Amino acid sequence: MPALLVDIGNTNIKFGLAEAGGLLSSFALPTDRGATPDSLGLALASALPFHGCRPADIEAAVASSVVPPLNPIIEHAISRYLGVRLRFVPTDIPIPLKNLYGRPHEVGADRLVTAFAGRRAVDADSVIVVDFGTATNFDCVQDDAFLGGLICPGLMTSLSGLVSKTAKLPHVALDPGDGALSIGRSTTDCINQGFVFGFADMVTGVTARLKAHLGGDVHVLATGGFAEKLAPICPVIRDVRPELLLEGLRQLWLASSRPGGRK
Prior knowledge:
The chain is an alpha/beta fold and 263 residues long.
């Protein structure tokens, strides 16, 4: 029987269905801060059959959240419509990383989960996880310690901010094309080239500085909505894991379900 994995983000709530062998399926619903347990529960219960699963099939539910006001709403929705208790990381399920943040409680659960999953995914002295989400996060793990990182503007967040503050600039679909920079000859082209290559070079430059600071063998992997598009023009990125957060939740669920783990 599958587990339901829940990534409660500022833009979307992403759901994954997983078994011991791996992630089976994933889908997303827009984050609605006005949602009720019924509206969210009905939407979730309606979506599950399209992914080969009935609500009654769900064995367990595990979530990370960066939107605390939604936590009780989603918790009640899953309890009412799926009949299982939603457990949160790291409050209900600990993350086996030493958190070296000055104020550990300030770190978003999403950052800790992706850092944990990145550490488990590769064999290197240090790992840098670049997460292209609402913000662009650079999170550093050395051995089994979460060192911290950098939080930079998100690509789509920046684009939306620019368009909303300017009367004549259009909202464009960003596309790196063949990966070669060209001089834009229309406003749309200028925005596309500026954002795609501007963010690619931000990632390249910031990552180079972090690698120099960390020293040794450093593996850079990327995740998040725009990772697959930007990775080909960011040679520093060695690996793309689009579902890294869900994979981290899957591993934490399995660890908590083993004998001796927290139930």
